Amino acid sequence: MNVTMGSAEPVIGWFMLSEADRAAANRLLTSVSSDGTRDELGFAPIHFAFADRFFPGTSVQHAQIRYVFFVAWSYQELLADTAGERFSVDRLFEIEQRYSRRLIKSVKTLEGSGISGWMKYEAGQRPVVRASTIYWAALRSWRMVRPVAGLIDAPTESQLRGVWPHLVTREDGDHGKSTVLELFEALPASPPGWRNKTGRLDFALRGTEARYLRELWKGAGHNGTQPLLSRLTEQGVTTASLWSAKVRSVATKREREALALAECAASLVCIARAAHSALIEQMRNTDLGAADYRHAEALTKLIEEHRDKALHLDVGALRTETHIDANLVKFMETIIDWVRERRPLDAIAKALTIRERDLKDARAYLINEKRRRDWQKGIATPLDYRWPVVRNMIKCVRSAS
């Protein structure tokens, strides 16, 4: 068998986003960069390192787990229709729009439904970020996608588009029989009427789909090992807290050590974010002649609640585990010293200002009075490493299988 290699011509195009689109894209990028909270102080590497280790392939954007199948079936359909041709983003959008409209018609309330891009679809527009982009990393991490066209690993979205014309093999000769390569690993069949433009389509996992995910998760860890995600699923652990005894009982010894480290880091991050918010609030009060003290009052309570865990954090061990950079290490050590010494907010103001300025430049709230005017933020919380999203995934998979 010979693989027919097509030539990929470079294409340059321009597109314009409205202010609303840019704002929406910024909100998405902000949330996926960390734990759904704006990351002015640069703690995202800690969140990513532990979340990806415990729960590979997951994201705070994963509102409905069945989307991984919608995305796979969309690509499968596209491949069947365009094998050997150039990748068509427009055709992929048409498929996503079709099933999204069916989902929209199947829910009573769109707000909070988990339907990706529903506001844009309702307005007859394209979403800024498609569901296929949001969920593709899961398909790769869980090994739903096969390595194809000579790639060692499952392709990224951009890689897949590059090799798309090569996903067809042909026997020798110009008129040889062609075969479309299998892109997905034993993927469950799409539902009857998948290509229809109308008809009910929902997010409820079917039994075959749930069992498929459970099997994939067993080998979704580093080098094909079983991650904590799989063990929690097999044992049905969906406790409110990631730090519960039930979670630890399922974890391996090494995972328990990592969980302890992650919990201490989560507490320290909570205190640092609370102090940052209280300082912005303090400066904003001066700017506007306001008298808001919500974050200042919360800071005192959060320090007392998380102080012990924060002071037990071994920053050296954290760096070894997460590979955070030296600047973040130094900043965290400064926060620990400030907490240990029980010093006032003003004593940590310089460190917070320098840290945010180094990361955000002129956009830093602590040096930008104009940005502070519209600043709003909820009370700081510890890093959760995607656990609220993951526990809902586990519940869905367990109930369906």
Overview of this structure, please?
The chain has 401 residues and is mostly helical. The chain has two domains: 219 residues, no CATH class; 139 residues, no CATH class. 55% of the residues lie in helices and 2% in strands. It has 17 helices and three strands. A three-stranded antiparallel sheet has the order 1-2-3, with no helix packed on it. A hairpin with a 7-residue loop joins strand 2 and strand 3. Helix 11 crosses helix 15.
Per DSSP, the total helix count is 17
- Estimated helix fraction: 40-55%
> What is the rounded distance between the termini?
40 Å
Shape: globular
Tally of structural domains:
2
Order of helices and strands: EHHHHHHHEEHHHHHHHHHH
State which percent range the strand residues make up.
Answer: under 5%
Q: Give the low-confidence spans.
A: 1-33
Largest sheet: 3 strands, antiparallel
Q: Mean pLDDT, rounded to whole units? A: 90
User: Tally of extended strands?
Assistant: 3
Radius of gyration: 24 Å
Task: Give the spatial strand order of the biggest sheet.
Answer: 1-2-3
Overall SS class: mainly alpha
